């Protein structure tokens, strides 16, 4: 037992002798400078590692939020991310240069402290953990958790200047990497080799035929593809059907108006509908209903929130981020002259992609004739909904509703009984509501049109 303990003590003494540095060297100015330099190099490695993770973790919503807040670094971030290849090569060049410098500097420090015979071992067991923990894992973990703060406060001041400084080296690396990549994998694929939307639609149709994808999933995929090309005007509630609150109304009238229309947000106007003051929220009205005594002391102006508006050209897919960014469920659509065109709601956007959220058990206002060739429909019915219901394909480059198509073909103020022909279809005005076409009869084929003519003449007599 004593022999065993003596051997352990001897091994311990040998270990201490191996790891004990040359203490006389620790006081040398050159070594102190190198240690401080090593600390700075590790910090630099952390900055470059966090830069890569933070910048490429920024979402489109993060960038839009910074832009809306007029953040001073917003334009710089957009500029950097517009050229991702230039950015990543610059960051990697900086990171590799610093890591090489850190490894070389640490080797010199260890040679001074332990001699050349021991320095190799210490470089392996000291430098690798230092770079891994403090130069890679820790900064990247922090960056991926807080990409906006890291990008704006730490990364931008460094990377903005580094990109200019490293330009010659970046150009050289870029050219060499392009040649190596071309040698290994061939020329870069041209846009003609990329899967286009129409090809993707065909692929989805083929998958549906095999039974691996249902018709509902297919419709949802197609709607998502269409959302990027569809303007909000095609899914809006038109101005003629929008509820409005007069800015002069008393609060009790506003609460009754909400009971009647059951909307989450209703726009408020002054003098005319194009002069928007803002929105009244159902939450605020509900709080007044729960505390009736407050109605006498509350003015309508106290309930108005700033107006949320979008242009006619806004795309449907952009509305998801827009509603989330503005914490809204509805927005008023304005034309180029500032006039109100309609209102788009979160429910409308969701229904465009996912279909009817609350399915109706019936389609009020739609009369299906016995011969399947004649339909009476509301004038404001969307063309796409009409096609889904009847398989009648009526298209128009500018209009989105049945009434819009009919009005455009008439090119004048419509009246009851007006008819127009569009390919094999006949559209007839059945009912007017002021200047608005309220109901339309759509018939297909000459026989259906002739039958309608006889019926219409008998009705007039």
The tally of beta strands, per DSSP, is 13
Q: Give the number of domains.
A: 4
Q: What's the end-to-end separation, in Å? A: 126 Å
Tell me the fraction of residues in β-strands, as a range.
Answer: 5-15%
Number of helices: 18
Helix content percent band: 55-70%
Strand order of the largest sheet: 9-10-13-12-11
Q: Low-confidence parts lasting 5 or more residues at pLDDT below 50? A: 360-364
Return the average pLDDT rounded to an integer.
Answer: 82
Q: Largest sheet, described in full?
A: 5 strands, antiparallel
Descriptive notes:
With 461 residues, the chain is an alpha+beta fold. It folds into four domains: 13-182, no CATH class; 197-227; 232-354, Roll (CBS-domain), CATH 3.10.580; 367-460, Uridine Diphospho-n-acetylenolpyruvylglucosamine Reductase, domain 3 (2-Layer Sandwich), CATH 3.30.465. It has 18 helices and 13 strands. The protein has helices spanning 2-19, 29-57, 60-68, 74-81, 84-114, 116-145, 147-165, 167-185, 197-209, 215-227, 251-261, 282-290, 300-303, 318-326, 346-354, 383-390, 402-410, 446-460, and strands spanning 237-238, 245-246, 265-270, 272-281, 304-305, 309-311, 330-334, 340-345, 367-368, 374-378, 419-422, 425-433, 436-444. The protein has a five-stranded antiparallel β-sheet with strand order 9-10-13-12-11. The chain has a four-stranded mixed β-sheet with strand order 1-8-7-6. It is elongated. Residues 360-364 have low confidence and may be disordered.
